[in-house]
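The material for today's practical consists of a large collection of protein records. A record pairs a protein's sequence with a compact description of its fold. Instead of coordinates, the fold is spelled out as a row of discrete tokens. We will come back to this pairing of sequence and fold again and again. Here is such a record, shown just as it appears in the course material.
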Amino acid sequence: MNIGIDIEEIKRFQKLLKDKNFIELVFSRDEIEYCSSKKKNAVQHFAVRFAGKEAVWKAINKSKKLVITDISFKNSVLGKPEVYIKGKKASYIDISFSHNKTTVVAVAVSSK
């Protein structure tokens, strides 16, 4: 079992998200649509998914050569985030997101 964790300040993402190139380089089309649909809290959603990508990378990159764009998230029908690696569901990785007004955190646990 491997664990990865990442924490980010939301304020940092308010600046980064003004750069459309950054968004398109880091997030999948589905992630951009999902986060952008959360009008009031879009920054939180982008920031926590970025933290999630970092957490997953830390948990599994010892055995795989991944870049941040290889990792994405989609919500299940119950709303739970699920990890996708290079477009394929990675059911061996669990992810948990949390955020408040200033900070986001993500934890990833890989059973491989």
The CA atoms of residues 71 and 85 lie 5 Å apart. The longest strand covers residues 2-9.
